[in-house]
Amino acid sequence: MDTLATLGPASLFMISMTITPGPNNVMLTASGANYGFRRTLPHLLGIMGGCFLLFAAVALGLGLVFERFPLVQTLLRIIGSGYLLYLAWRIATAPPPALDGADGRPLSFWQAAAFQFANPKAWVMGLTLMASFLPEGGNTLVNALLLAAFAELVALPCISLWAGFGTAIGRWIKGPRAWRVFNGTMGALTAACVIFILG
Predict the structure, then answer these.
(1) Which of 43, 85, 70 is nearest to 197 (CA)?
(2) Which residues form a coiled coil (predicted)?
(3) What is the pLDDT of residue 53?
(4) Three-state DSSP state, 153
(5) Helical packing angle, 140-172 and 23-57, nearest 10°
(6) Mean of pLDDT values over 129-151
(7) SS3 of 60, please?
């Protein structure tokens, strides 16, 4: 019963965290526009898979590493920022789709999943989710896995909206110049997330 009582508040928390702008959603929008929704699915599912593993690991004690070793958090921010800047550069310099014969590659499942471990917003979500909504009674591992799975089910439609939004934008953009402006803007927005990471 305690578990069921936490699902409503946990749902509201996950909706508020995953439907708002952040590195994942900006990149999903850019990917949807450039590659379409279907080709963006591995990226989208990779976000879910990476967050699931991260959330479960946090519940099982990985979050304590931050408390005991603050240097780990600093290193994570630096690594995450560097990788995010690399992804921002990839987005900003992506060629217009199908206009120059080049066939770019969206992020793979594993690339997107690995990014979650360097994504401070994912860590904040995981730490808050597990600290606030993990039931105290019962098997911790089972509860952690169930809560992480439930959180990702709630997140799925929220992040899918961003990929769908990008796909819709991609249908309206015409000409190489418009694509360069769009990709440059999305790259800049992705890079701007570093300010919040390091701030």
Answers:
(1) 85
(2) none
(3) 95
(4) helix
(5) 170
(6) 88
(7) helix
Query: What is the C-alpha separation between 54 and 57, in angstroms, rounded?
Result: 5
Q: Give the span between the Cα atoms of 46 and 66, in whole angstroms.
A: 24
**Whole-number Å distance between alpha carbons of 21 and 24:** 8
| Cβ–Cβ < 8 Å for 186, 178 | no
The candidate with the shortest Cα–Cα distance to 39, out of 92, 91, 107, is 107
d(CA 82, CA 80): 5
Looking at residue 5, its pLDDT comes to 64
Q: pTM for this one?
A: 0.84
Nearest-CA neighbor of 58 among 122, 136, 138? 122
**Residue 39 carries which side chain, given as an amino acid letter?**
R
For residue 161, give the amino acid letter. Answer: L
Centre a 10 Å sphere on the Cβ of residue 37 and count the other Cβ atoms it contains: 17
**Cα torsion angle, 15, 16, 20, 26, sign:** negative
Residue 68, amino acid: R
The pLDDT-based confidence of 103 (bands split at 50, 70, 90) is: low
What is the tens place of the pLDDT at every residue in 33-56? 999 999 999 999 999 999 999 999
Q: List, for residues 161-176, the tens digit of each pLDDT value.
A: 999 999 999 998 888 8
